Amino acid sequence: MNATGPYLFSVYRHVDDLVAGIRALKGEGMSEFQVFSPVPHHDITAALGGKRSPVRVFTLVGGLLGLAIGWGITIGPLGNFSLHVGGKPLLSIPPFGVVAYICTILFGALATIVGLFANTRLPQWNLTPGYDERISSDHFGIQVRCAPEEFERLARLLKTTGAIDIRRILR
Amino acid sequence: MEYKLTYSDTDIDLMKTMRPAGRLYWALLTVLFLLVMAGGWAWWMQIQTGIGLAGKNSPVGWAMYITTFVYWVGIAHSGTLISAILFLVRVRWRAAVYRSAEAVTVFGLMTAGLFPFIHLGRVWVAHWILPVPNFDGLWPNFRSPLAWDVLAITTYMTVSSTFFLVGMLPDLAIVRDRVKGWRKKVYGFLAQGWQGTDTQWKHYTAAYVFLAALATPLVISVHSIVSWDFAMSIIPGWHSTIFAPYFVAGAIHSGLAMVVLLLIPLRRSFGIEKYITMHHLESLAKFIVFTALVVGFAYMVEFFAAWYGNEKYEKAIFLYRMVGEYAWAFWLLITTNVFVPLLLWSKKIRTSIPCLVVICISVEIGMWLERFVIIVTSLAHDYLPSAWGLYHPTLTDSMIVIGSFAWFFFLFMIFVKVLPAVSMWEVKEQLPPPLKERG
After folding, report:
1. Which residues on chain A are in Cβ contact (under 8 Å) with B148?
2. Closest CA to B294 of B370, B194, B208
3. N or C, which end of chain B has less CB nearby within 10 Å?
4. How is A5-74 classified by DSSP, letter by letter?
5. Which residues pair with A9 in a beta bridge?
6. Per-residue confidence at B438, pLDDT binned at 50, 70, 90?
């Protein structure tokens, strides 16, 4: 979402009201809004729609990179360390496969974290202006970007859907 | 498992664990700290004087330290089982107990990780095992299970710590929004700016599933690899294909018992019995019955394979375990690991807190002894009678092992006070959402 305002921040007590608010905004053709909730909820996800998270791509790429690194660190240095140990061949596929397997998981997990932080834009040292601390507990919220002349109309619209608190955020 | 609570009840109740500690807490923490210091002093003496202070010798070169290392890695397995595997199969009751189980994993690994260093003797050259090109031109022998073990344990530590911390982000935001002053800044930093936006939840839930999916094969492979430290050798009693599943089952057995042992005082001390209910403890107890049966079956198969294989050294070592110098440990482990937990078939026993505590302690003793018997008897009594020898614990290695238990419980007690010990957001997910139609 664009970092310029003004914004309207509405707070809800009930999830069904919040879903009604999302549908009302979508009905108005608005798409630039952000929904806040204490837990993920399938009704909210369904109302918002949207694409699947690309985090899975990070996981896949990280896993494949790990697999390559695993084989790389075991096979790569064979030229410099050509010492037979325990009667095993220099290129020992099963034991090197164990290393590749572990590296796949390690890099897959690390890439998932990178994907999570990159896509959620975390860390964020400044919370969203207007963020309501009740949201992490038991309330819900919608932050919507609107032109100054649209504020009153949208506020009335969201009020009808059950918003208990509506604020104008200027930034 | 249905809770009759609201979202805000959850925050109020579950943040009780983070309130300022009472005298009993500080007294216990002090005792644990002193025991850790005693263990640390024993290790320091061993570094100063030499590894001879420990009871390990030739032929029993792996003794108390590797026994305890394997024990703690095993303890670490319950966390990932509960947090990742039960998450993937959508077991609802995991929500209230998985955070503590994950803490058991992380602190179990932090304890286990000390033992290879303690066992090394020359701890100052420990970095030689790392795959880092260095001055001496050393490179790990990746055909050795010991090199796999280093990779597996460090990967498990990294992935489980990550899973633990990432799983906590929404809860840290709850704490941030409830506290004031410097604590707000600290928890604000830890929460990394989490606000529960739709974008954050979308990527978070996706990442959580992938982390769980990656942690699941990892938990199976880590203890399999630890078992291969033994099974890849040709020592009688170790060289067995059954070791990997047998070790994994044993690890989960001891890990679950440890989780129960920690949850019982946790729920009682902080009055959160309505979150961590008897249903949770009973479900874990049923799991322990299952793992006891698997472990018992593995013991029988091991003996059967030794008899049926008709390999004389293999038969000799299993006979030695039953009647030799360490037979007391063998029979004690069979009793405490297999027969005692089977008492949990009885609903009356598995819903009795004192019985659960006694049975879980029994499992812990049994699982430690199992590793002791596997390691010590096989080394004490291998191929050449002229090379046979016994292991006797010393004050130094005993103090270090006791110190490791103190270190684990010390870390857990600090965790309970500074971080949310029960996942608030996942417990909320189990509650009916606040709906207007419901009022």
Report:
1. 95, 98-99, 102
2. B370
3. C
4. --EEEEEES-HHHHHHHHHHHHHTT---EEEE-SS--HHHHHHH--PPPTHHHHHHHHHHHHHHHHHHHH
5. A143, A167
6. low
> What is the overall mean pLDDT for chain A?
90
Give yes or no: residues A43 and A61 share one domain: no
pLDDT of B102 strictly over 60: yes
Q: What are the backbone dihedrals phi and psi of residue B113, each rounded to the nearest 5 degrees, phi first?
A: -60, -20
- A92 in a structural domain: yes
In a domain, A108, yes or no: yes
**A46 shares its domain with A63:** no
Examine the domain organization and report whether A142 and A107 are in the same domain.
Answer: no
Taking only the tens place, the pLDDT of each residue in B250-299 is: 999 999 999 999 999 999 999 999 999 999 999 999 999 999 999 999 99
> Is residue A2, in this structure, part of any structural domain at all?
no
Does A97 reside within a domain?
A: yes
Q: Which domain holds residue A107?
A: 55-120
A108 pLDDT band, cuts 50/70/90, is: very high
Nearest-CA distance A29 → chain B (Å):
18
Our CA-based measurement puts residue B381 at a distance from the nearest CA of chain A, in whole angstroms, of 23
Task: Report the range of poorest mean pLDDT among A3-12, B75-84, B324-333.
Answer: A3-12
Do A116 and A66 sit in the same domain of this protein? yes
Average pLDDT, whole number, for chain B? 93
Q: Do A137 and A85 belong to one domain?
A: no
Domain count, chain A: 2
Judging contacts by C-beta atoms under 8 Å, the chain A residues touching residue B193 are 122-127
Q: Give residues 148 to 167 of A whose Cβ lies within 8 Å of B.
A: 162
